[in-house]
UniProtKB/TrEMBL annotation:
<feature type="transmembrane region" description="Helical">
    <location>
        <begin position="190"/>
        <end position="208"/>
    </location>
</feature>
<dbReference type="InterPro" id="IPR021149">
    <property type="entry name" value="OligosaccharylTrfase_OST3/OST6"/>
</dbReference>
<protein>
    <recommendedName>
        <fullName>Dolichyl-diphosphooligosaccharide--protein glycosyltransferase subunit 3B</fullName>
    </recommendedName>
</protein>
<feature type="transmembrane region" description="Helical">
    <location>
        <begin position="220"/>
        <end position="240"/>
    </location>
</feature>
<feature type="signal peptide">
    <location>
        <begin position="1"/>
        <end position="25"/>
    </location>
</feature>
<feature type="transmembrane region" description="Helical">
    <location>
        <begin position="299"/>
        <end position="316"/>
    </location>
</feature>
<keyword id="KW-0812">Transmembrane</keyword>
<keyword id="KW-0472">Membrane</keyword>
<dbReference type="Pfam" id="PF04756">
    <property type="entry name" value="OST3_OST6"/>
</dbReference>
<keyword id="KW-1133">Transmembrane helix</keyword>
<keyword id="KW-0732">Signal</keyword>
<feature type="transmembrane region" description="Helical">
    <location>
        <begin position="272"/>
        <end position="293"/>
    </location>
</feature>
Length: 334
């Protein structure tokens, strides 16, 4: 998504370019101390970059004792589902939080976010023309537009893990394990535990008397099918990485795409479809081995067996078709 600047942005840049070479009085240790304090005030370790703070960073002689990773944001574009800035920013926050969890004493790498509406001059100084945009500023960078290293779109769209690979490759620093926040907050866990303790006497009484859902074989059967589908459809991966079911077609914003053509990204609908096909195959196998053997009529057995084989073959064929279409590793047979 392209962005445009007003005239004041370029006037501010001109002033910066005139003043920075003259004034190099800011001590780098003082700036690192200030950045460390600002980082400690953020729950994710991301510092909000303003025009003033950028001027201070520019005032430090090169090579600076730290590297910057900057996420360029715009509140006005948060409603644009095509670029998904809130989701990408959340992945950036996860990256920052994980880095500082794994490297709590590091003063050589700082994460920043910057807002377009309040810092257009800084955007222009970096030469940012479109979003999403993330760049790494090495210690020797003088001209931020020329010397910064821009993160590729493929790395931005592939979540915090791919961003971490970019950081490690360009900065020679180790990010470490990506730590994602839990699905349930601490207060919610406490409420669930309290509710469980309150209900535990009634549940124990039900279980001892044999009059509970745990004694219903149909519940166990339905639960096993659900667990099987949950496992083979990649649902946990979708939840952890917040994978959308579908995405808006870039060529036609009024159309949704449920299958992404390419191995670089997978949508939730793709996993559910393959999981559904696997579940059909598993149910056919379970039906033949546990139900059909009790049918006494041989003709019915043969007919149902052939039908189960046909349905299973169709499901497996569709799985191979989708795999070949997705990866392009083999021929596609209709």
């Amino acid at each position: 998504m392209a962005i445009s600047y007003n005239t004041n942005s370029f006037l501010f840049i001109l002033v910066l370019l005139l003043l920075v070479p003259i004034n190099h009085t800011l001590n780098s240790d003082d700036l690192v101390s200030e950045l460390t304090v600002l980082r400690s005030r953020s729950s994710t370790g991301v510092i909000h970059l303003s025009n003033r703070l950028l001027w201070q960073i520019l005032s430090v002689p090169v090579p600076r004792p730290f590297t910057l990773l900057v996420f360029f944001d715009s509140q006005k574009l948060h409603s644009d589902s095509e670029i998904s800035l809130p989701k990408l920013k959340n992945e950036f926050l996860v990256l920052s939080s994980s880095f500082h969890t794994n490297n709590p004493d590091s003063k050589k790498f700082f994460f920043f976010d910057i807002e377009f509406q309040e810092s257009q001059a800084s955007f222009a100084l970096f030469g940012v023309k479109s979003l999403p945009h993330i760049c790494l500023v090495p210690p020797f960078a003088i001209d931020f537009e020329r010397d910064s290293i821009q993160m590729e779109s493929s790395d931005i769209l592939r979540h915090a893990e791919s961003m971490a690979e970019f950081v490690e490759a360009k900065s020679e620093l180790t990010v470490g394990t990506i730590h994602r926040p839990g699905f349930i907050s601490k207060k919610q866990r406490m409420c669930i535990i309290a509710l469980g303790l309150i209900l535990s006497p009634f549940l124990v009484k039900k279980i001892v008397s044999g009059n509970s859902l745990l004694h219903d074989k149909n519940i166990w059967m339905a639960g096993s099918i659900f667990v099987y589908f949950f496992s083979v459809s990649g649902t946990m991966y979708n939840i952890i990485n917040k994978i959308p079911i579908a995405m808006v077609d870039r060529d036609d914003p009024g159309k949704l795409v449920f299958f992404y053509d390419g191995s670089g990204m997978q949508l939730g609908a793709e996993g559910f479809t393959v999981g559904f096909l696997y579940t059909i195959f598993g149910l056919m196998l379970a039906f033949v081995t546990h139900v059909l053997i009790h049918v006494k009529n041989r003709n019915i057995q043969r007919f149902v067996m052939l039908l189960a084989i046909f349905v299973s073959f169709w499901a497996v064929k569709k799985v191979f078709y989708l795999y070949n279409w997705k990866t392009g590793l083999g021929p596609i047979y209709g």
